[in-house]
Write a structure and sequence with these properties.
21% strand; Nucleoside Triphosphate Pyrophosphohydrolase; 107 residues; two-stranded antiparallel sheet; 4 helices; single chain
Amino acid sequence: MDIATARRLSDELNIETKLEYVYRFIYQAGFGGEGSEHELCHVYLGRTPTDVHPNDSEIAAVRFLSPATLDREMGEHAREFTPWFLKEWQELKENYREQLQRYCDVS
């Protein structure tokens, strides 16, 4: 999985960085008439340079947010985030806070 993750970072963001495996989870979510997802997700943490060059066929935009701003936006505009990301962020803060704290200030 580490090799696949490094490959996706290169393909999608054109970066290389060391990642730390945290956990994995399964989620299922429907998207109205558009379909649904049922996936196994592996969660990694790492640091990235602020100068990323996303592959525009994979990623429309990149933003860097503080944890406080992310929490606020998720609270105010939850529908703008994918179901898996909402779940993942909450899980990281509740059950993997020590690991997450090594990468950002979640106090």
